[in-house]
Write a structure and sequence with these properties.
Chain A: InterPro entries: 2Fe-2S_ferredoxin-like_sf, 2Fe-2S_ferredoxin-type, Adrenodoxin-like, Adrenodoxin_Fe-S_BS, Beta-grasp_dom_sf. The structure holds 2 protein chains of 2 kinds. In chain A, strand 1 and strand 2 form a beta hairpin. By secondary structure, chain A is an alpha+beta fold. Chain A is built from 7 helices and 5 strands. In chain B, helix 2 packs parallel to helix 15, helix 6 packs across helix 7 and helix 10 packs parallel to helix 13. Classes of the chains: A alpha+beta, B alpha/beta. At the A-B interface, helix 1, helix 2, helix 3 and helix 7 of A face helix 2, helix 4, helix 10, helix 13 and helix 15 of B. The structure holds flavin-adenine dinucleotide and FE2/S2 (inorganic) cluster. FE2/S2 (inorganic) cluster (FES) binds next to loops of chain A.
Chain lengths: 178, 468
């Protein structure tokens, strides 16, 4: 147990010097009690890290993001969702508690393809960013892949998407051989 | 008096469970397949209880002991698994091996249904002369070694050479290659086991050759893993032009995923021509070669010295020897030609294919037995594939519950009915709180070393920590 205490102290002293690590550490400790909210924590951390620093957060009240409506189409049914402009489509699914089994398994880190979404040609052209090689690589593992497929964790919500119907494909393909 | 009380409790129990019989389901193996099956079962039936058994002291199967340490993002799936594990109707039972500590027969008595999701635990052999020479390793064991699987922690491979040959071109082969090619400072931050990091950091390996039996179109790796190799700093990749040139004509007809993969291979081949002697390390993908024999080195008859290959040509996707052979000198080789499942006594098993015979996850001709994941489908597919597969099995079980194909009777007590028999054989089961404690300490010890985690490899240490 004494050994454990030293480990904890060690961690403490690092915490003060590095806000990054402190966030990580807090997280590690919280994990035991709040594993249920872990998904959210990790994702938020990832998203927040490059954008905000501690000081700006204090000085500026959070700007209210514009909200639009996006509809996810799964097995023929329409699931409407409130979407904040600037968020990723994966965030929209999670923040609206949309029950899509297994969606976003890698929590938006471009390593699973479970956030696969299918757009219309029209919509595909309007999406602000083009897929990178890495996104296309992951998409190549997705079941039901079409030319207008994208990964929900790589597409930002923009104002033009208000009222869009976006298709959630049925499954994932068997693409890996070991 | 005591006996009377017991009878009374028994009566109440059977009486109350007659009103609301609880479907108790045991899941054997707590990898992705086990957790995804449990997740779907719990979500879709609000009465059902699930006990998940795991032979190791840690859950998550290959996510912990297979997925490469430098792919931490892939392990994010764990947060969904832990949500399932803390569900009131779910119980995780670690350190209990089904088939050894509890028989399938006893399990069947204690549960309405059993789901086998215990993965594929061994790997395929090449079955060629010299496979037992020193220096010939299984990629599976090497992966288990650097990932801290207790039973593999003593492997202690000899990495003291400059050339490594990996037989196979799947993602596991590429994972192994990266261990030799990635910058050490990257590996240092991961949850790679300390002893492995130490050993790898002292290795002299400069060149990694990934050799495939068939051609570029049949290479089993994903494009993401191949691209990752091309982006390693201070390292360049070689593909011989002659082996891929024929693709240029074919490429237009291919479906998008294959097309993009072949474009990448051609690009690598094109840039292989440039002279890049400045780079410290190098890897190569080489095709149409089957290993025929591992040959001993001249200095030591027990030690691998070179590998003889047959040159192949392809017909209908099958490799045939041309009669020509080539030799590659190396003291270190890994076979990486696929995993394999093994049976459990009392369970139907297709030993030819290395999996449990089933239809949509329902074990053929066995009421109440199901399977999920690699042991159901064979050892291919990413976690997302295993997820879909787990959902499919769960759906089959739910249908069988609804159509009363599964017996749900009152005397099925689940783990409560089995715990005593474990005491008799001195097996100490762990629960999820125990695991959470282990998890926290591993993370803390890791953080103190600047790593994401340092895994326990000694179960005795684990028990000391838990004060059992
Ligand atoms: C080296 C390697 C790297 C990989 N990397 C990736 C990757 O980067 N991304 C990706 O998406 N996929 C990856 N995969 C694939 C992925 O790991 C599999 O799709 C998935 O783990 C299969 O899940 P499973 O539950 O069927 O088996 P497993 O994950 O093997 O789980 C089986 C579990 O059952 C337990 N068990 C075994 N026997 C018993 C018993 N008798 N009683 C109780 N418990 C038992 C085992 O200890 C284990 O915990 C990788 C696979 C390998 C081999
Ligand atoms: S959430 Fe995994 S790739 Fe988007």
């Amino acid at each position: 147990m004494a050994e454990l205490a030293t480990v904890a102290m060690h961690v403490d002293s690092r915490e003060k010097s590095s806000p990054h690590r402190s966030r990580k550490m807090n997280f590690a400790c919280k994990k035991l009690f709040t594993s249920a909210s872990r998904a959210l924590l990790v994702r938020k951390n990832l998203k927040d890290l490059p954008l905000k620093t501690f000081s700006t957060e204090i000085l500026q009240p959070k700007a209210q993001k514009e909200t639009i409506t996006i509809n996810f189409m799964k097995n023929g049914s329409k699931i409407p969702a409130k979407a904040k402009v600037g968020d990723h489509l994966l965030d929209v699914v999670i923040d609206n508690d949309i029950d899509l089994d297994g969606f976003g398994a890698c929590e938006g880190t471009l390593s699973c393809s479970t956030c696969h979404l299918i757009f219309t040609d029209e919509q595909f052209k309007i999406i602000g960013t083009k897929p990178t090689d890495e996104e296309l690589d992951m998409l190549d593992l997705a079941y039901d892949l079409v030319d207008t497929s994208r990964l929900g964790c790589q597409v930002f919500v923009t104002k033009e998407m208000n009222g869009w119907e976006i298709e959630v494909p049925a499954g994932v393909s068997d693409a890996r051989d070991v | 008096m005591i006996r009377l009380k017991r009878m009374a409790v028994g009566a109440i129990r059977s009486f109350s469970s007659k009103i609301t019989p609880i479907p108790r389901i045991a899941i054997i193996g707590s990898g992705p397949a086990g957790f995804y099956t449990a997740q779907h079962l719990l979500k879709s039936n609000s009465k059902l209880h699930v006990d998940i058994y795991e032979k190791l002291f840690a859950p998550y199967g290959l996510v912990r002991y297979g997925v490469a340490p430098d792919h931490p993002e892939v392990k994010n799936v764990i947060s969904t698994f832990s949500k399932t594990a803390i569900n009131d109707r779910c119980r995780w039972i670690g350190n209990v091996e089904i088939g050894r500590d509890i028989s399938i027969r006893d399990m069947r008595k204690a549960y309405s249904a059993l789901v086998f999701s215990y993965g594929c635990q061994i790997d395929k052999l090449l079955n060629i002369p010299g496979e037992n020479l020193k220096g010939v390793y299984s990629a599976r064991e090497f992966v288990e070694w650097y990932n801290g699987l207790p039973s593999a922690s003593t492997l202690n491979p000899n990495l003291d050479c400059e050339d490594v040959v990996i037989l196979g071109q799947g993602n596991v082969a590429i994972d192994v290659a990266r261990m030799f090619l990635s910058p050490l400072d990257e590996l240092r931050k991961t949850d790679i086991s300390e002893y492995a990091l130490d050993k790898i950091s002292k290795s002299r390996v400069k060149r990694v050759h990934l050799v495939g039996r068939r051609g570029p179109l049949q290479a089993a790796c994903t494009i993401a893993e191949l691209r990752e190799l091309t982006k390693l700093p201070n390292c360049f990749g070689i593909i011989t032009h002659q082996e891929v040139e024929f693709l240029r004509e074919k490429i237009k007809e291919l479906p998008r995923p294959k097309k993009r993969m072949m474009e990448l291979m051609l690009k690598i081949a094109d840039s292989s021509i440039d002279n890049k002697i400045d780079f410290q390390k190098q890897w190569s993908l080489s095709f149409f070669k089957s290993p025929l024999e591992f040959l001993p080195s001249e200095e030591n008859p027990d030690q691998l010295g070179k590998i003889r290959f047959s040159l192949n040509k392809l017909k209908d996707n099958i490799a045939y020897p041309t009669g020509e052979t080539v030799e590659l000198s190396t003291n270190l080789a890994f076979r990486s030609i696929g995993y394999r499942g093994v049976g459990i006594p009392g369970l139907p098993f297709d030993s030819e294919r290395g999996l449990i015979p089933n239809k949509n996850g329902s074990v053929i001709n066995e009421r109440g037995l199901y399977c999920s994941g690699w042991i159901k489908r064979g050892p291919t597919g990413v976690i997302a594939t295993t997820m879909n597969d787990g959902f499919e099995t769960a759906k089959t079980i739910l249908e069988d519950i609804n159509s009363s194909r599964i017996d749900i009777t009152s005397d099925q007590l689940g783990f409560d009915g089995l715990a005593n028999s474990l005491k008799d054989i001195k097996v100490k089961p762990l629960n999820y709180q125990d695991w959470s404690k282990i998890d926290m300490i591993e993370t803390q010890v890791g953080t103190a070393k600047g790593k994401s985690r340092e895994k326990f490899v000694d179960i005795q240490e684990v028990f000391k920590l838990l004060d059992h």
